[in-house]
């Protein structure tokens, strides 16, 4: 398993994109066709920062913009099944979602675990591993 990406939710996508591209030196790149606006920014050919449009006002006690979650990528079906077994054994609830395919990138599956209010961890793998 390795750290996959961080996600920032912001109401000012263009300012965030310009900062991370023009100042931090990340590259804007391809992004799956999600239903919400955003950008994927790349470093060394990998999408390491996801910017997402804040479509709703922040909930009380939560600020916007905010770093929304961190994600860990699991590369094999064995790792994925072991994670699912550990989550089930510990009684940890999660939500799942699918990432649509994009060009040569196959569809993926994501699991989101809320550790505490405002603290979300994502696990992601290729759909074929799920």
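Sequence proposed for the structure above (130 residues):
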């Amino acid at each position: 398993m390795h750290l996959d990406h961080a996600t920032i939710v912001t109401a000012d996508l263009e300012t965030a994109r310009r900062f991370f591209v023009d100042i931090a030196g990340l590259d804007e790149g391809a992004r799956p066709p999600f239903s919400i606006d955003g950008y994927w920014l790349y470093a060394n050919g990998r999408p390491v920062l996801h910017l997402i449009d804040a479509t709703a006002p922040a909930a009380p006690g939560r600020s916007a913009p905010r770093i929304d979650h961190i994600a860990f990528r699991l590369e094999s079906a064995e790792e994925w099944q072991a994670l699912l077994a550990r989550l089930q054994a510990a009684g940890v609830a999660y939500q799942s979602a699918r990432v649509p395919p994009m060009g040569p990138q196959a569809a993926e599956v994501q699991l989101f675990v809320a550790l505490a209010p405002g603290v979300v961890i994502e696990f992601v793998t290729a759909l074929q591993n799920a």
